[in-house]
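To whoever picks this up:

The parser on our side crashed when reading a file containing two proteins. I've narrowed it down to the boundary between the first structure block and the second sequence. Both blocks are reproduced below exactly, byte for byte. First block:
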Amino acid sequence: MENTLKVERAILNLTQGELAEMIGVSRQTINSIEANRYVPSTVLALKLSAIFKKPVNEFFTLSEED
């Protein structure tokens, strides 16, 4: 899975820590998602969707390996 989380976060001028606090996870979790080392749960993806005001599939996409 690939994502544009870092770009979306920058558009809102949020640090990893600020975004993490908003959705109730650690900064390290945000870092891992941005680096494609961690695939978020559906609940976490929906929380991100609410913050970015975009559908989940606009910032998460399947890669060829998926």
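<<boundary where parser fails>>
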Amino acid sequence: MTLLVISPDYASHLLPLATLATAWQSAGERVVVATGPATAGLVESFGFERSDLPLGRGSNPGVIRAEQQPAGEDDALRGFFAATYRGMVETLRFQAEARRNDLLWEPVDRARAVLKVIEQVQPDQIVVDHLAFSARLALAAAAIPYVDVVLGHPSALPVGDEVYGYPTAWPAAFRPAGDELAALHRMCRTVRDEFTAEWNTALHALAPSAAPTTDAFTEHGDLVLYNYPAALHNPGRADLPVPHAFLGSAVRDETASADLRTWLDSSDQPFAYVSFGSFLSARADVLSTVITALRSTGLRVALASGSAQGLPPVPDDWLVRPYLPQAALLARASLAVTHAGNNSVTEALTAGVPMLALPFSTDQFAGAAAIESAGVGVVLDPNAATARDLASAVREALDCAPAARAIGTQLRRTPGRERAYALAHDHLPRLGQTQAARRERAAHS
């Protein structure tokens, strides 16, 4: 049996998908990952086969830098970083504008490339990142069943009157003006409609008889799996897809290297793990303020500095590297200081670690609001918080440890990869069986 995993060429997307796929691998099944070249090493590290399938202009092997992106994408990345300095609404507006060009990159060509990969691999089941829109377009056009994995906050798949790109909740630290929010909502609706028109045009080119959609952002696969803890999800969000399930998290098995184990074992002093993910480490100004704040707390620190430049000196017993094995360190950490990206949130909670969240963009605001509501952390505005604010918030966040540990115990009981494997086999027929049935119906029609 063969599983095909389709992912954009971004490590932050591929890591949780590859982790889920290890359940198929452990069951003795073949796993093929279709993605771009930047993450080829990551695919190899999991022991999977790889099929080349770029799905967008940009890529991210783990730490993203503008100078490593293709022409045009580098300026877009610099524009995004600049927008984060101007605040929440400006960042979301910038991202809404960018969505006109980056989510459906060469959709007909990429969709046909996806179908070619499927023809070559002959998978029995397919797992797709929800944000791989061109891939899901191909599967919709060809009526091929698949598992749709929502890797971000659940609102990445809108329900009801939600509009893609407009956060469903705001942390208390953010108080945008009503007129700014109204303008942002209008922009997100406009982009939604333009995106849907582009989706329908491409769908018609691929499958002329296919029915168009009224909102392409609400399209989804035959089984929707949310890489998110049910304990953090707003129960008021009704009309979720049927069938769907909350996986909790997709935390990979990760072993610290010998030198990291030496650092971990060198002291019984609690430590904070600090990371702004593969993108937002570029905000060295905020990381610098975090460093200043943490120096006053008595905690040791393990800091993944990413692309940040010009950070202030740190104590000798701190650990600072561009990249750190996040899952391995969170297993021993007392606090996570994070941008509230979904991988960071789910991995911290699986380890039972409370958070100090500093959201900058996209669904990080809704994710941070959920952290706040569930009492598993504290949220501040990264553009407004001072070192004194952060130091005080660290102490508050540490008091959230019991709630975080309780959720972590639940999440560790049934790992997300095991749930994904069982659900996929329960709810979806083997693709070969589906194709055979389709051929039989065609022969008798």
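After patching the parser it read the second block fine. Confidence is low (pLDDT under 50) at residues 434-445. The domain at 2-250+414-444 is CATH 3.40.50.2000 (Rossmann fold).
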